[in-house]
Amino acid sequence: MLKQFIALLLLSVSLFAQSVPGDYFERNGEVYFRFRVFSKNELSDLTKIISIDKYDGKWITAYANKDEFRKFEKKGYTFEVLPPPGDVPVEMGNPRDTEAWDVYPTYETYVQMLNDLATDYPNLCRVVDAGTTTQGRKILFLVISDNVNTREPEPRFMHSSSMHGDETAAYVNMIRFADYLLVNYNTDPLVTRLVNELEIWINPLANPDGTYRSGNATVTGARRGNANNIDINRNFPDPVMGQHPDGYAWQPETQIMMNTGTQYYFNMSANYHGGAEVVNYPWDSRQARHADDNWWVNISRRYADTVHFYSNNNGYLNDLNNGITNGWDWYYVYGGRQDWFTYFRYGRELTIELSSTKLIAGSYIPTIWNYNRAAWLNLTAELLTGIQGVVKDPNGIPVKVKVTVSGHDATNSEVYSDSLTGHYARMIFPGTYTLQFSADGYQTVTVNNITAIAAQKTPLDVTIYPNGWVPVELTSFTSEVVPGGVKLSWRTATETNNLGFDIEISEDGTNFTRVASVEGAGTSVYPKSYEKFIPLASAGKYYFRLKQNDLDGSFTYSNVIESGYGVVKNFTLAQNYPNPFNSSTVLNFSLPATSGVTLSVYTMMGEEIERRELGQMEAGEHKYRFDASNLTSGNYIFRLNAGSFTASRKFTYLK
């Protein structure tokens, strides 16, 4: 017993020794260690040297390769070397062949599983080979959508796991998530809607060289870094520290993810890790909050609350603020993928730590699934909400534009529309906003009073016009004769930078003169209606056109419309002819405006004995033959009513 105690004491001393020999790094590639700090301010320098893994207010656990650790040693901290988290035995097999999904696949089995899903569901699933790692392994994605081989105007969500090779809680579960979506399509309503309305990308293994460091046959021996012992999640361009915050060239895994994120615009993404149990939202690299901080908090809390429900509130995923945290508030990270996607690619990425244990036992994989499955579905479904639509030019061609929320966006929180489809998705906290759509060579479109509603999608399609393009889409232009002149009415479907309209008149259809002006709506994606009364002094045939004026001085003309034959200035009812009459007589009357006309017959005592509805009659001269065969001989009175006009005439009927 004494010998055992002495051995443990010597081991403890060695763990706290101030040096790690070089051959340790030759065997392991990296060192996993912890040390104590006395102020969070110390992290600002430390995070530039080593890969901080966790900070609890006193203790830091971290990783470092040989060069990084030598720099750390110069800081003089007392440290403890910890066993590599990936050095644990696990059971290998084909997870899809077991109902429990409780084993890890070999690398070859992993690749085959993804290809099998694409083969089994060719209309819903395809495999994307994004690139090759240092050791020749593949970074693979499963793409799932109802028309998977056709790019549709719908948002993209990316799920990605294990960019730290020894953090495997989501590795097998992401394959299972893909299988679940495919198996339950057209059965489960939410799954069906997700597959129909989204393009879902799933990358189960972002660092295969790290996970299979010991060879393709096992994940035991997995390491955080890649084959070059570089932490990929410190290797991305950083909004604060620049293009190479860790001092290393971009690694193959980094370049592959950057190329994929540049070629395919992901509206949202989730990056799954281990070592803690918390949902981490931007920013990691700056103290200032993201412009959509309330939205980030909302979706993070919804994820954590869903997990708490399915884990029966057993304490799972309750680190920090009951399962959620702002990245900077926890500890500072430079070169992380979350901030790269969110800042440089204008996306929305969460980092989700799924397990305090990094390389989890195969038997624990189904537990992670049971706790998180509903939350993964709901998180994906966030892309069914927000303000969404398609941006096209007047010819119906999709346009890539920047979508800015006026008075709200800051630090690259704007989003972009897809260059191939024109689709955009602006996820945002419920409220009423003003959106601007802008692109080089196009006139900026501003849309006011757009309301985002919780858990709903607000559709907003936009037409954006090239510079110099006449920005008004005129859908109708009509005239109506009214008392004293003509009322012109027109309607637009959309307007961009519309200064207004000049109304021009002509008597010959060739030579036009401006007679009035009407102010335009500026910019609008909604239909607008206009009308203008044009007084006319004499009867005749008139022609009208609109001259639409843009803010930049350009203009265009509408089609020419005709007011109709004759313009009646006054309402008149002439004496019937013949009078007296037998059998029938003719009434002549004039209408200065389109009116509903009624003809009534009264006795000389004022009793109405007959009423005839003549219907809606256009402005102009009219004749009406009155048949009196049902009357007895005598004197009577005609009364003609047309809108607000009334006139009477006496007549004599001789039978």
What does this structure look like?
The chain has about 650 residues and is of the alpha+beta class. About 20% of the residues lie in helices and about 35% in strands. An eight-stranded mixed sheet has the order 5-6-8-7-9-12-10-11, sandwiched between helices. Strands 21, 22, 23, 24, 25, 26 and 27 form a seven-stranded antiparallel sheet that branches. The chain has a four-stranded antiparallel sheet with strand order 2-3-1-4. β25 (about 545-550) and β26 (about 555) form a beta hairpin. It is elongated, with a radius of gyration of 38 Å. The model is unreliable at about 1-15 (pLDDT under 50).
Q: Give the strand line-up of the largest sheet.
A: 5-6-8-7-9-12-10-11
Tell me, briefly, the overall form: elongated
- The Rg value, from CA coordinates, equals 38 Å
Q: Roughly how many Å apart are the termini?
A: 141 Å
- How many strands, what sense, and barrel or not for the largest sheet? 8 strands, mixed
Mean pLDDT: 92
Structural class: alpha+beta
Helix count equals 14
Contiguous low-pLDDT stretches (5 residues minimum) are: 1-17
Strand segment tally: 34
Helix content: 10-25%
Which band does the percent of strand residues land in? 25-35%
